[in-house]
Predict the structure.
Amino acid sequence: MKTIIYKWVLMVLYTLLIGSLLVSCNKKTTPNVIKSNESFYINDYADVLLNATLWTILDYSIELYDDSSVQEYQDLNIDGAQIVVLTYQSQLGDINTTEIFNSWGIGKNDLGLLIVLFIDSEKNYQELVVEIGDKTSEYLSAFEASNMVDTYFNNPDINPLDIDLRLISLYFAYVEFFYMNIYDYDSYDYQSFYDEYLENQYTYFGKLPTENDDFFYNMPIWLWIIIIIFLPNAFIPLVFISSGRGFRISGGGGRSRGYWFKK
Amino acid sequence: MKKIIMFPIFIAAVVLIILGIIWINAYNGEVTRNNLIEKNRGDVHAALGSRYDKVLAFIDAIEGADTTVTNYLNIIKEARTAFAEAIDNGDIIEADAEAGTIDSTFVTLLAYMEDNPASYNTVSLYAGFMSEFSAATNVVLNTIGKFNESVMSYNNHIQKFTNNMFLANKEPYATYSITNYNATLPTFN
C-alpha cells in the first residue's frame, strides 16, 4: 500500500515538474516585445536584408563586443558594447523599442545601441528608430546620432532604395563612433570596411547560424507531450540537449531609459 | 476542563497571529510601494530637468525670433528657473506646475514655429535638435509610465481587502497627467 502511495506521489511530483518546465518554455512575453533570434545582433524579421548584410553586421558586432571586453575596459566599467539591428514589418507604435532593448539586455554596462528599421507590407522601408542605451547616451546624444543618420543613412550618394547599403553605411558609422569615442581608438578604417562590403554585397556566404534547421527549437508541443507520456525517462535529457544546443549569443543586461528618436 | 479553557485561547492566538501577519504584510507593502513612488517621482523630475536643459540649448540657438516667439521663450526660461528652484526646495506641487507651464508653452512654441517658418529659419541644425527633444521626451514619457505603474500598484494595495482595514488612513496617489506630451514632438519637415 505504501509503495503505491509513494509511486503516486512521485508521479504527481514528476508531472508538476514537467508541467512547470513546459509552462516556462511557453512563457508569454509582453505583446509588443519580440524575442531576439539566436544571432542576437541581427534580427531580420522583415526578411529584407541581403545575406552579406546579415553576416557583416553579425561579424562586426561580435568583433566590437570582443574588442570592448578586454581587461582595460572592464576596469573602467565600459566593457561589452553591443550594437543590434532589427528589421520589423510593422509600424512604430506596434512594438515598444524600449521594452525590446531592455528585455534583450543590449550592451553590458548599458553600452548598447539598437537600430530598428520599420518595413511595410510591400517590403519597402518606412522609418528608422535609434534607441540609445543608458550609458551610451553619455557618449552619443540623440542630436549626434540623428546627424549621423542624416549623413550616412540618408547619404544622397546612395540609392535610396538600396536599404542594405544605407544600413551598412550607418552601422559602420556607429561602430566607428564606439571605437573612437568610447574606447579611444586612434583610428577606425571605416572606408575599407565599407568598400569590402560593397565588393561582397551580393555574395551569398551561407546561412547564418540561426537559420540552420533546429529540430528541438521547432518541435511542436504535442510531440513533447507524447515524449512525456511514452518516454518519460527521455524527457529530462532531451530538455538539456535542446537547451544546450548550437549557437547562441545573448545581451549583456543593458538598459535604456527610453532615449530614442525616429527619422 | 483544562482542555476546554485552552482551546479558545489557542483559537484567539491563531487569529491574532493571522491578523498580525496581515497587518505586517499590509504595512510593509505600503512602505515598499510608497518608496518606489518617491524614487520614480525623482526619476521623472530628473528626466524633466534634463529635457529642459535641452530646451534651453534650443532656445540659445534661436536667433532673430519674432515677438511672439520671444515671449514664449521668456515664459519657458522663467518657468525653467522656477522649476529648478522648486526641485531644490522639495516643493513637488510647484515643480509639477512649472513643468506643466514649460511643456505646454514649448509645444505651443513648436506649433507656432511650424505654422510660421520665417520665425525659425535661422535655427541651425534644427533636425538634430528635434531628435534630441524627441528622445528626451521619450525618456520623460518612460519615467512617467513607470511612476504611474507604481502609483497604480500603491493604490491597488491600499484599497484591496484586507489591506484597506489597516490602511484606511492612507490616501491614494494621483497619476501624472501626460497631456502635454506627444509621443513625438511636431516636426518641421
Remarks:
- The longest helix of chain B spans residues 2-61.
